Amino acid sequence: MSDDLIQKLLQAEQTASKKIREARAYRTKKVHAAKVEAIQEIKLLRDEKLKEFENYKKEKLGSTEEQTKENNKKTEIEIQKIRKQAQVNQNQVVDLLIKTVLNVDTQMILDQNKKLKH
């Protein structure tokens, strides 16, 4: 009788050990599956957020090509303004230079020479 009880206990222990192993294997399998699923979800979320950021960047900053075109356009406008100003003022500058070179104050030169001699 006691041998039967011991056998039943040993059999119950083996059954319990088997169920524990199965439960651990099931848990390991579930944890692994959850980890794989989480990695996939993170990748999808990362891709989605990256796409949102790129769209935001394009919306707020414009594309690099558009920025380059806009900067070139602004630069060309500024160059044209400077050329127009130079053209308008060119005659005045030449006239001023000629007037300054040709209109020498001889009295001032004489006064300077006198001071140098003394």
Outline the structure in words:
This protein has helices spanning 2-61, 64-102, 106-117. The mean pLDDT is 87. The chain has three helices and no strands. It is mainly alpha-helical. It is rod-shaped, with a radius of gyration of 47 Å. The longest helix is centred in the first third of the chain and has 60 residues, at 2-61.
Structure characteristics:
single chain, 118 residues, mainly alpha, 94% helix, V-ATPase_G, ion transport
Derived structural class = mainly alpha
Mean pLDDT: 87
Q: How many E-type strands?
A: 0
What order do the SSEs take from the amino end to the carboxyl end, as H and E?
HHH
Question: What's the end-to-end separation, in Å?
Answer: 147 Å
Task: Give the overall silhouette.
Answer: rod-shaped
**% residues in beta strands:** under 5%
Number of helices: 3
What's the alpha carbon Rg, rounded to whole Å? 47 Å
Biggest β-sheet strands, sense, barrel:
none
